[in-house]
Amino acid sequence: MSTLEEQIDINAPIDAAWDCLHRVEEYPSFLQGVRGARAESGDRAHLDVDAGGRAQEFEAEITDRGDEHVMAWRTTGGPDLSGTFSLLPIDQGHTRVQARVTYEPGKVRDAFGGPKGFAQATAIERLVRDDLQQFKELVEAER
């Protein structure tokens, strides 16, 4: 298993970022490759994904630790992916978002296509960094 960690600071209070993170229908606005998303019953989300040029569907289980501002997730179908989004207050108007993604490189390559080894790790790192930047822009635009 490989783990990737990235973070970004957002010019918004923690509650604004937390609320945005929980609007599943907005995931296509900041998660590359996600064409559609909807909340399912309980703690599940359904994602329509463009994976390596192929349309695929994934289910994700989401667990909140709201008192800590941590959202944990894991796929329940498709490639074995999991991670967390941790929101940390910097001050009243600024929030640090930390993303952690755990994945099996071979299974991700099989599911999504793409390069092997270091090139794949670099591509995933860039993807997560870009997604965090898009999330930042979405949250800040809502202010």
Descriptive labels:
7-stranded antiparallel sheet; 43% strand; alpha+beta; 7 strands
Structure notes:
With 143 residues, this protein is α+β, with helices and mostly antiparallel strands. It has a 7-stranded antiparallel β-sheet. α1 packs across α4. It has helices at 14-21, 27-30, 105-112, 117-141, and strands at 2-10, 34-39, 44-51, 54-65, 70-75, 81-91, 94-103. β5 (70-75) and β6 form a beta hairpin.
Could you provide a short overview of the structure?
The protein has 143 residues and is an alpha+beta fold. 31% of the residues lie in helices and 43% in strands.
Spatially, the strands of the biggest sheet line up as 1-7-6-5-4-3-2
Distance between the termini: 38 Å
Question: Could you name the ranges where pLDDT drops below 50 across 5 or more consecutive residues?
Answer: none
Largest sheet properties: 7 strands, antiparallel
In round numbers, the mean pLDDT is 86
Shape: globular
Order of helices and strands: EHHEEEEEEHH
C-alpha Rg, in Å?
A: 15 Å
How are the secondary structure elements laid out?
Elements: E1 2-10, H1 14-21, H2 27-30, E2 34-39, E3 44-51, E4 54-65, E5 70-75, E6 81-91, E7 94-103, H3 105-112, H4 117-141
Antiparallel strand pairs: 1-7, 2-3, 3-4, 4-5, 5-6, 6-7
